[in-house]
Amino acid sequence: MITILALLFLPLVATAFAFTAWKRSAHTSQRVTLVAGIAHLLASLHCLVTRQNPFPGDWWLAVDPLAAFFLTILAHTFVLVVLYSRGFLRRMEGPEYDRSKRLFYPALNFYLLANTLALVVQQFGLVFLFVGVLFFGLSARGVADSTALVVPRMAEAAPQLNPLWLKAGFIFALVGLSAKIGLAPMHPGDIDATSNAPAPVAALMAGSLRSTAVLALLRFYQVVSPTEVRPFAQKLLVFAGLFLLAIAAVYVWRNRNYKRLLAYSSVEHLGIIALGVGIGGVALLGALLHLLFNSFGKAALFFMAGNMHRSYGSREVNSITDLMRRLPLSGFVWVLAFFYIVGTPPFGIFFSELFVLQGMIRTANWLPFTLFLALLMVIFIGMSRVVLRMLHTPSAVPPPRVANTERLNLSHALGLYAIAASVPLAVFQPAALFDSLRAILATFGVKL
């Protein structure tokens, strides 16, 4: 019961409180939001480690190992954003920001509640209202009515489902979720939203919102995995992953906006995740770890992007010059986060990408293997060109509103933590995490 309260009731109470408390104290709203986030994180970790479902068995809400893993990503990113947001809102001065600041914490808490519900619901029809759901329902014709659209029951009855309707349903589910996840060719709207959003909102979108949509896709994949449709779904996912990497490889070279660069970096990493799921086996383990480690890196990058935008007053790459001299601390964290996100050892993304490569080698997927390495190299060179230019290009005229001195603040500490936290998780592979990941893999028929 305590776990259910922490996952659902506290975010709801925090939302209501933040609506009423802002006029009295913005600091109080932030503290209540932080308490709700930490309680949610502890409850999510408890579900992940113990692999126990806190909800009654006859509910349409449940926390299986897969949901617990995604809840942990959501809550961890949420807590980082809440901690960063206090300083971010303090810098928003002027009456034009009053309404936005008043709505920020209520919206943040409601975001936590809404995503939690999306992650724990076990009924397709309650969340995913598009044609793919209809086709999945049609595939269950002839099976018990209680099976239709309930994920665990459909997975159990999967061999009895109609493969033709399963194929059609998975295609429409993939297309329907593409806009939410950021899969090409539905990615432009997602790119625009992420690149124009304030730093904390962009960190949430890149670190946790897309993860929620990925879980929705994995629920569909969970149903088709025990059936003859699985190879078909895997081919679609491998193609989607390579296509995303190709899109990212093109646009990181053409991009002149550093926040859009980060958005296209998210497209790249979603491609790696889709590729890992499609390859299967140990590559699926790599895809799950990549989801976790990408959320760390994107938080650090968008926090530093927020610092740069505040100081330089621009999102254009050409406007960011002499970063290491003008904002040495933000520049240092920025370059560390860059090496993190491109998969440099010993950071976590390096290891998750190794698992994906290992999966391709084991299954002899040599064409995806070759294209994967080639596209990663192109993306690395393209991003390096932009980041190094921002760090060391001299500026003849100081950009507007740039401070020549910078003090260590919470945003730098949060960025360094997010970068460093993946190292022990990837190197030492703690049993509490990896046993849960093995339990997740088992639901997809994978044993390591």
How is this structure best described in words?
The chain is globular. About 1% of the residues have low confidence. The chain is mainly α and 448 residues long. It folds into two domains: 122 residues; 321 residues, no CATH class. It has 19 helices and no strands.
- Continuous helix count: 19
Give the number of DSSP strands: 0
Query: What's the helix-strand series?
Result: HHHHHHHHHHHHHHHHHHH
Unreliable stretches: 128-132
Shape: globular
Mean pLDDT: 85
| Rg, Å, rounded | 22 Å
State the end-to-end distance.
Answer: 34 Å
Percent strand equals under 5%
- Structural category is mainly alpha
Share of helix, binned = over 70%
Number of domains: 2
Please describe the biggest sheet, giving its number of strands, its sense, and whether it closes into a barrel.
Answer: none
Helices, strands, pairings?
Blueprint: H1 2-21, H2 26-50, H3 65-90, H4 98-120, H5 124-127, H6 131-139, H7 151-156, H8 163-181, H9 188-196, H10 199-224, H11 230-254, H12 258-279, H13 282-312, H14 323-326, H15 328-341, H16 348-362, H17 366-392, H18 410-428, H19 431-443
Helix pairs in contact: 1-2, 1-4, 2-3, 2-4, 3-4, 3-10, 3-13, 6-8, 8-10, 9-10, 9-12, 10-13, 11-12, 11-17, 12-13, 12-16, 12-17, 13-15, 13-16, 13-18, 15-18, 16-18
Notable characteristics:
single chain, globular, 448 residues, 75% helix, mainly alpha
Provide a concise account of the structure shown:
By secondary structure, the chain is an all-alpha fold.
